[in-house]
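Trying the structure run again after the queue cleared.
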Amino acid sequence: MGMKEAARTPFDSAVGDGGSAGPVVPRLVLGARLRRLREERHISREAAGHVIRASRSKISRLEGGRHGFKLRDVADLLTLYGVTDEAERATLLALAEESNTPAWWQYYNDVVPTWMQTYLGAEQSASLIRCFEVQRVPALLQTPDYARAAVRLAHPDAGAEEIDRRVELRMTRQRILHRRPGAQFWAVIDEAALRRPVGGIGTMRAQLRHLIEICGSPQVTVQIMPFHAGGYAAEGGPVTILRLPGGQLPDVVCLEQLTTALYPDRPAEIECYWDVMNRLVVEAESPDETPTTLHRILQET
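Done. Tokens:
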């Protein structure tokens, strides 16, 4: 059964025209700037927390972009850090306001767990998304019918309305591949995921045809890790790395699990996952071979 067009949400205009993708990037930018200012003045997190009537751990969360900002708190911190230039204060206070702007996916809060908010904020803002998938076609490349089948497998007790909303969310996320400028998406998919008939033969054949078509998009690169490659660098499970725009923020690594996700954030860890991803690209078939391989799998399905 095909899915009807996703219902319009209060945030559709922002998504459709490439507007704000939510508060995550402003939070990260502002947090990083506040941390640099604090360290330049040799002020401890405890001292900064005392000024805004907060704990050391809250300062850590603010600087890590994991928490929204109150304008009064930012103003007090800027004063503590000796920032008197009105233009700079106005810029950072504007970032604080943006950090509390609702993201479009808040319309789907009933089906977006807390751990996924961080991922969606990074995904919907990313300039580059690299991923490796073992058992499923990546969510950003799924057809509605394939997504529906995958959602049912992941949420066997969900009712029809919840499944509809989860599928709508997944389809809406895919708009980042059609924006101008849009995110560059580069996926390496294990051959097993392409031969596993999620949703049945008909659904899987339609999914394979969709992958063949989307390989023609200049924003999408797909490589296949064939069975004959033997073992490979990331047998432990799926990996996603997101690069945020501007060149000043650290990359985001996401390791999705059954009911949560891990976000390794130490520089050495991020570098390790980039190394794994780059080795996967070398070990997988060339992107030029992907349509031919997909056609062969389609004929054999």
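The two ends are 19 Å apart (CA to CA). Worth checking whether this holds up in the mutant runs.
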